[in-house]
Amino acid sequence: MSQQELRVRFAPSPTGPFHIGGARSALFNWLLAKKYGGKLVLRIEDTDRERSSKESEENIKEALKWLGITWDEGVDVEGPYGPYRQTERLDIYRRYTKQLLDDGKAYNCYCTEEELETERQAQMAKGETPCYSGRCRHLTDADQDRLTAEGRTSVVRFEVPRNKPIVFTDLVRGTVSFDSNGVGDFVIVKSDGIPVYNYAVVIDDALMHITHVIRAEEHLSNTPRQILLYEALGFGLPKFGHISLILGKDRTKMSKRHGATSVEQYRKLGYLPEAIDNFLALLGWAPGGEEEIFSLDELVEQFSMDRVAKNPAVFDIDKLNWINAHYTKQADPELITDLAIPHLKAAGYLDEVSPEQRKWLLKVVAVLQEYISYAAQIVDHIDIFFNDNVEFETEEAREIMHDADIPNVMDAFRTKLNAMDELDGPSVKAMLKSIIKELKLGGKKVFMPIRIAITGKMHGPDLDKIIPLIGRERVLARVDTTLSKL
Ligand code: GLU
C-alpha cells in the first residue's frame, strides 16, 4: 500500500433494518474512495451476537448494491486484511488482549453487576458522575484465583491513563478535546470473550490500514476511548470525521416517528436509487452552487469533506420527493411499471397482469409518471383509468356540469367521438379543437366539462392522453353515467 492511498471503511452492525443514516455514511465513504482513487472496505461488526443476524447483513449488502455503493475489500469480495466479519476475527483480538494484559494496560475485572450497581448508586448519591472505581486494577494472581474459585467470571477492562488530555482534529468538527479523567476504566472484552465495539473497531481499523474514519456524529463520544486504545496498542491514528446527526423536520433525532427510516422502506415505495443517493449526499454536504440534482459521477467529482457541515442535517421528505420526482419523470416506464405493480395489486386494481394488460399499463404509467413523486403514488392517480362509475370529486365539479353550454358540448363530444376511426393522441386533440371551434367556446369551457364527465375531477392528465387509454366505449358510457347523476 502506498503512503498516499486513501482507505476508508463502512462498518455496519447488522442488527436490524438498514437505516438511511447508515446509507449516508456508506455513501460519503464511497464518494471519498472514488474521488481520491482510494479503497472502500466493508466490514461487518457483528460482535453483538444477540442482535446481529445474517439476514440483516444480507439486507445491508443488497441495499448498498442497489444504491451503487460497491466495496473494494470486505465481506464477500475479501482482500489482504480479512476476514472482514468481526466474529471471524476473535483470535486476532485475543492476541492484542494478551498484549495489553502483559503490558499492564488492561486487567481482569471480577466485579459483579450488583457490585457495580451499588458503586454507581453510591457515586450518584454523592453527586459524582458514575465511573468505574478501578477496584480490580491491582489484583494479584492469588486474588484472581480466589475470585475465580468463588465462581465469578471476569471481563477485561482497559486501564485509562489519568490526567491525559485527548485532543484531535476532526475533519468536520475541527479541534475536539476530551479529558481522560472523564472516562472510567472501560470493558474491552466481555466475560464471554467477545470484544466490545470500541475495542474491536480500533484493532480492525488499524490492521486494515484505514486512513480516514468517517462516521456518524453519534460515535464522536467513542473516539476518545478509541484514541486511548490506539495509543496503548502502539498503532498510528487515522484521521476522524464525524458527520452530523440527521434530524427530522421538527429538529428531533430522526426516528420512526418521522416516517420511513430504512432504505428498504423507500425502495419498496418505488424510490429510485439515483434519487436516494442524490438526497443522501445533500444530507450534510453542501454543493458549491445552486444546483441540487447530481448524478453519482457528478457527486464523485464535486464531493469534498470541507463542504460537509457541522450543523445537523434535516431530513426533508418534501425535498426527497422533489428529487425522486425528477428521476421518476426521466425513468423508463417499464421500470416505474414494475415498481408500481405490487402497489396496484395491493390496492386491488390488478391481479395477474396479462401481456396485453401490461402493454396498456405501460402507457398509463407513462402518462402518470409526470404526476408522482414515487411509484407507489401511482395508486393515488390511477383511479381515472379503472373506475367507470364516475363520482364528482367536489361540489364545484358538479356545479360546472350545470352550465348552460353543457348539453351542446356533450352532444358534440359524443357525436365526434363516435365518428372517429382511430383513437390516438393527435386525433383526439384535433377532435377536441374542432368542438371549440364549432361551438365558439373558450378551451376551458370544453375541456373542463369533458374532463369532469370522464373522471369526475377538475384536474389531471391531458384529455388526449387519457381518452385513448380509457377507450371509446368506456368514455361514452362514463359520460352517460355522469350526466345521469346531475
Ligand atoms: N458498527 C458501528 C455502527 O454501526 C460502526 C461505527 C464506526 O463506523 O466506527 O454504528
Automatic annotation (TrEMBL):
Keyword Protein biosynthesis assigned: yes
Family annotation (Pfam families): Anticodon_2 (PF19269), tRNA-synt_1c (PF00749)
GO MF annotations in UniProt: ATP binding; glutamate-tRNA ligase activity; tRNA binding; zinc ion binding
Sequence ranges assigned to domain Aminoacyl-tRNA synthetase class I anticodon-binding in this UniProt record: 338-481
Taxonomic path: unclassified sequences, metagenomes, ecological metagenomes
Family, per entry: Belongs to the class-I aminoacyl-tRNA synthetase family. Glutamate--tRNA ligase type 1 subfamily.
Identification of the protein by name: glutamate--tRNA ligase
UniProt subcellular location: Mitochondrion
PANTHER family: GLUTAMATE--TRNA LIGASE, GLUTAMATE--TRNA LIGASE, MITOCHONDRIAL-RELATED
